[in-house]
Amino acid sequence: MRDEKHIPTDWSEDHSVAQLLAHLQKLRRSVPVNYQLKAELKKQLLQRIKELDKERQQSLVGSRPNRFRLVWSLAGGVVLLVLAVWYGFWPHGVLSVRQPSLLAMEAVIDQERVDLNADGTRIAYVTGGSTIRTYALHEPDKKVDLSLPVDHGDFTSLSWSNRADQLAVVEQQGETSRLWIVDVPDDKQSGSSRLIKEEEGAAFRSPNWSPADDSIVYTRTSDGVEEIWVSSIVSMRDWKVAEGSQPEWSPDGRLLAFTKQGSVFVMEMRSGRTTLVGRGGWPSWNSESSLTFTTPEGTLAEAEVNEQPPVLKEVPIRSWKGGRLVRAHWAADREHLLLLQAGDETENTLVVSLASR
Amino acid sequence: MAMAMKRSTRPSSDSSAEYYESRDFTELYDEYFDRVNRYLRCRVQNPWDADDLTTTVFLKALEKFDQYSRTSPFASWIFRIAHNTYVDFMRKNREFPVDQDDLLGGEPDDTWQPERQALTNEEIRLLRDRLDKLTQDQRDVLTLRYFADLKISQVAEVLGKTESSVKMISYRALHQLQKMYERGEGE
């Protein structure tokens, strides 16, 4: 090693130090390199280089006039002011339905096909089985359809990321299940998509992003067995964490809530210690230590999971017109709640509403 | 008029005033991936975390590549990112406990280098235990010097220290490590 010449003379003559340097060199060569990752990451980087080139070209074409931007900023400011005044009159912390009947979905299986973005201002849902549609809640007429490079299958589940405007989407085509990440297009970037995982003979469902948006946890069903797996979207590795379904990470990433055999459980990620919360399904975190879930009776329950055993209580929802609650899912801001209610006349339809506190 | 900078497919010596790195990002990635991956696998216990960090390093590097001056060695630049990424990771203490057998073994695929077979996991574990007994500066210097294979000047640049300071830290660290090996500490 080169350092031999940098070591003081009296020491470099010491044979044992030379042996140590040789030993360190041998150890360095023996640390394995992940060549599979090297190949996969290179593909990912090449894709990103293409995207960056495209973005640069678009920025060269020219941006919108500043006057246009100013008008939008003013309009946004007015909307924010109105919202601030409006919400100022409501008592804080009380859950109320703000936008009832946002959407009507065709079947109960659609309950995973709709989600709110991080700040509860935008909704995404699957329509016609194979189209992902999204719009800002204050502009319901401006809908945007997203497409994937391969669209032969049906989209069965989707989930908004916590920070960026990205969706995790599950595509099912016959026996093959695929997990995609889709960038939602906006003024700054065009939509693009990336295949994260593909497997034949298994069905993926209920994807959910880690707090740092660097991994996705999801249900993997094979031969009737439901398991919870995590896929890193950075290293592309995946691993099983538990048996169950409908996983959701707590906001601090410390806990994972999931459903198994009609009950909600919480698992501590570090130790793997699992605690039964109660009968029900679709757990969703409303703070770092509290989650809500739907009960078999169709109501919303809240559990403080720091208490042992967890303390449960029913959550009242102001302006809720009744009906069986199928799923309730909090946006990443933990202020907005998406409510999925079984239709009045037939249980095989879903009505989607928005509540907030 | 200033003399035009010399361009070549390989950089000239980094001590040269005419150093210019003309290779594109993918060429540099091909060359430096192994060193970065080895460095992080040496520093982080869980190999999955090390691979995640390696990915993060190169994604960050790509996003910031416009900021790389090309007149200084790429090794210093990429390892500054790698070292900072490692420090952030340790600060957040995101490592999950893993079975120690997973440290180097237990990988079901066949993508590893054949040389790994020549060394027992025990030797690596022993070295890490002994490095843990050194100071943070000593660990940083030794791992950058001997596992990232950086020159003294590059280690100094990554850590923001003078070359003489790095030499002294390296000298003392090697001396202490040698004593630990002689005493058979941790065995």
TrEMBL record, chain A:
Pfam families (UniProt xref): PD40
Protein keywords: Membrane, Transmembrane, Transmembrane helix
Record-annotated membrane-spanning stretches: 70-90
Entry-linked InterPro entries: 6-blade_b-propeller_TolB-like (IPR011042), WD40 (IPR011659)
Source taxon at top rank: Bacteria
Record protein name field: ANAPC4-WD40 domain-containing protein
TrEMBL record, chain B:
Protein's UniProt keywords contain Transport: no
Gene Ontology terms, MF aspect: DNA binding; sigma factor activity
GO annotation terms (biological process): DNA-templated transcription initiation
InterPro entries xref list: RNA_pol_sigma-70-like, RNA_pol_sigma-70_dom, RNA_pol_sigma70_r2, RNA_pol_sigma70_r4, RNA_pol_sigma_r2, RNA_pol_sigma_r3/r4-like, WH-like_DNA-bd_sf
Name of one Pfam family that matches: Sigma70_r4
Occurrences of domain RNA polymerase sigma-70 region (ranges): 28-94, 131-179
The organism's place on the tree of life at top rank: Bacteria
UniProt cross-references to CDD domains, sorted A to Z: Sigma70_r4
Keyword entries, A-Z: DNA-binding, Sigma factor, Transcription, Transcription regulation
SUPFAM superfamilies from the UniProt entry: Sigma2 domain of RNA polymerase sigma factors (SSF88946), Sigma3 and sigma4 domains of RNA polymerase sigma factors (SSF88659)
Family (UniProt): Belongs to the sigma-70 factor family. ECF subfamily.
Name of the molecule in the record: RNA polymerase subunit sigma-24
Species in which this protein is naturally found: Brevibacillus aydinogluensis
